[in-house]
Amino acid sequence: MTEIVSRADLHVHSCFSKRPSEWILRKIGCAESYTDTRALYESAREKGMTFFTITDHNTIEGCLELADFNNVFLSEEITTYFPEDGCKLHVLAYDINEAQHEEISRLRKSVFDLVEYLRSERVVHALAHPLFSVNDKLTIKHFEICLLLFRIFELNGSRNPLQNEVLKEILTNLTITDIERISDRTGIAPFDERPWEKSLIGGSDDHSSLNIARSYCEVEEATDVKGFLGIIKHGGAIIKGVASSPRTLAHNVYGVAYQFYRSKFDLELFAGSEPLLRFVHRALTGKCAQSDNGFMGKIRNAIGSRRLHHSGDQLRIQDLLLAGAAGVIESNPDMKGLLSSGRGSFDGLEDTWFSFVNEAFNAAMARLVDSILTSLPRANLFDAFQTMGSAAALYTMLSPYFVSYSMFASDKSLCLNLLRQFNRIPAADQAKGTKLAHFTDTFKDINGVALTLRQHAALAMTEKNSQVIISCGPGTSEPGVKNFDPVGSFDIPEYPQLKLYYPPLLEVLNYCYEEGFTNIHSATPGPVGLVALAVARILKIPICGTYHTAVPQYAAALTEDLAMGDLMWKFMVWYYGQMDLIYVPSRATGEELIKRGIRRDKISVYPRGIDIETFHPSKRNGIFKKRYGIDENAVKLLYVGRVSKEKDLPLLVELMKRLSKIRNGVHLVVVGDGPYLAEMKMTMKGLPVTFTGFLFDLDLAEVYASSHIFVFPSTTDTFGNVVLEAQASGLPVVVSDKGGPQENIILGKTGFVFPSGDVGTCLDAILQLIDNPSRLREMGMDARSYMEGRSFKSAYRKLWDSYFKIKTDTRYDDLKKAA
Asked: 438-465: buried (b, 16+ CB within 10 Å) or exposed (e) per residue?
């Protein structure tokens, strides 16, 4: 470096001059505000900027306020359009005069007229954030035309770093062949003599005074504005700064909103004495509030308290937030440090603010959830619905983050398609890999879904697939599993073993964004599944769901209320209707969803298998005699699963009552636990039945293999994993004609199907096997042979391949839109 180094942040907004920027109007709806442009100037000088300008949207008023300051030059950010379709662009024009501004305002409706005028006036100009679709109309074709129109392109300090990386990749390797191809296809001649040679500038795109010089230009040996801009035009700028993130952009939006309301409600009067406002002021302005502890300060504080803490239901959310926010600040050393004017660093404000918003929101939401759950059991439906409305309103507190993450995610599709268009294959190939986030409420529970997901996690590591199971509840994360601490929890009275946990939405959203997942799979319509859907929509990631459990039927059976079942159906149709693809465990389940209103083209039968090595006839041993004292010669009927009435277990009770009267030497073994267990034991007292409780791994495999017939009367199971495990262990099975299990047998060869609830037909099927030992053995061997082709590994590989298809189909749709 020589001694003379000049710097400028070439994209700074005064935000709240007399006419606020279009971006602010669109994002938070502010009408006016009063940020001091002189403060912007001083802030830029403090950060080492040699030259200074303000690029407000379609106005130079903010810049004119500083026209008499040293090294200030007039500039603006021009909103212009492709006249044929209204695609909006932002063009930065530097070192202009008032007359030129007036002409620019007249011509800006057409980007072609605008650029022609700027070139004729020799105005240095650049395309701002070239890969950001300002009004969601930007396509590959628009960008290619811009390559013909512009010489200078901006690396933007507030946009997705991916945009900047892709832009540099394309511009650095742009060839004359590329330009000729675009010109021939569009019929537009390049505006420059050497149109394949491009220059780059850096600008922070700052709207809040929080990120001035986050990205800036540095050049050597420029002593005046003309020289500075001349070097930039010919590619002599060095772009410096740090990358942005959705948290940066959201922090910017919060800062803009705070500055607006600070002016409107005179919050400056109270920011020095109200601890919460003092923290907010420092976090959202980067400046310390002046403390006022005197007599007038106390009066102002009292007035401010009345303004901020109205009583009554209308400010219930504010009360919750204020109480939660105060606790969050008090318990966090970094946040508490910001309250002291002499302590704490301004570095990392966006991360500190993210933590504050996240923790304050979680604290308020936990209290709201508790309020809802307290109201419902007392049938205080009015209070419950009112509180639910408050919860929905509370989510608006996070809207700047939702907008920011969504904007950053939107950039990816166009960027990837551009890499393909310009044959940057290595970068595109790198982005092809599938990375899956599999959401579940029940990863650590004892059920078929949880078992399947644990096997998925293990196989993903073996197969080196990029997959993370996302769950929420007590415990810690482990390899292949990301567990979030819950915001709150919900016990279901009718289902004591099941507890639902409410995940921290903002933390999950940030995690999924930073991990770069390409697909989301929801294994649940519960709280974790709702967060999965929200994340997928915000980050624009394809989402599929598995309809594992017949929730409406369970709800109706457990509550003995058909209306509850109908209500659950409405929710399930809404939830699964949002999916790009729905995996169902059986054709019957798929048809039921279709009848309820789900589109047929969204339904796919879930490729599901089992561990055929663990569940194997070779595991047969004397476990029943040794552990449970059951006669070795007895014919063992086996049931494995949840011991609950929705599994139609009263049928088993009646079955054994009848069977024990007509056949000796038959014993029922019930493996599992549940709310019906105590009643079932009492009802079957004196009958040949053994209850083992939960069994796992080798013990379970031995019990399967040492039994003779598997009986599964459930009408609410959508699949019935245990039916496959029994057949793999060499057992013929007897199942009802409702639900998915009937589709997992070969009728008359590996098992029988009886009409649901028909004890007599079920008894006849079992007697056919008991009374014909040779057929029992033959069907057991056929059952094992049938399962040889249903290995868990082969099913998992089919499932994994299907994720790539969902992702590529989605990208193909994006590519068609961009073409």
From this structure: bbbbbbebebbbbbbbebbbebbeeeeb
Q: Are 718 and 739 in contact (CB under 8 A)?
A: yes
**How far is it, in rounded angstroms, from Cα 195 to Cα 175?**
9
| φ, ψ of residue 221 in degrees (nearest 5) | 60, 35
Residue 490: helix, strand or coil by DSSP? strand
- Asked if residue 307 has pLDDT above 60, the reply is no
Q: How far apart are CA 681 and CA 643, in angstroms?
A: 11
Residue of 145, 227, 130, 152 lying closest to 197 (CA atoms) = 152
Rg over CA atoms, the chain: 33
Nearest to 131 by CA among 415, 534, 493: 415
Decide the pairing of beta strands 689-693 and 519-522.
unpaired
* C-beta of residue 787 within 8 angstroms of C-beta of residue 599: no
Give the range with max mean pLDDT: 249-263, 276-290, 648-662: 648-662
In this prediction the pTM is: 0.76
Region class of 158: left (phi > 0), else alpha (psi between -120 and 50), else beta: alpha
Q: What 3-state DSSP class applies to 432?
A: coil
Contacts of 482 (CB under 8 A, 6+ apart): 468, 469, 470, 471, 511
Counting runs of H as helices and runs of E as strands, what totals does the chain give? Answer: 32, 23
CB 653 within 8 A of CB 684: yes
For residue 351, which amino acid is it? D
Terminal-to-terminal C-alpha distance of the chain: 44
CB contact at 8 A, 318 and 325: no
**For residue range 430-482, what is the model confidence (pLDDT) as tens digits?**
445 789 999 988 766 666 677 777 877 888 888 888 999 999 988 878 888 99
Report the distance separating Cα 568 and Cα 547, nearest Å.
Answer: 13
In this structure, the number of other CB atoms found within 10 A of the CB of residue 175 comes to 10
Q: Alpha-carbon torsion 666, 672, 673, 674, what sign?
A: negative
The 3 state secondary structure assigned to 63-102 is: HHCCCCCCCECCEEEEEEECCCCCCEEEEEEECCCHHHHH
439 contacts 522 by C-beta, under 8 angstroms: yes
DSSP secondary structure of 552-576: HHHHHHHHT-HHHHHHHHHHHHHHH
In the structure encoding, which two tokens stand for residue 694, read together?
């939960």
Separation of alpha carbons 625 and 667, rounded Å: 12
Using the structure block, give the residue that is written with the tokens 């910001």: 338
Separation CA 597–CA 599 (nearest Å): 6
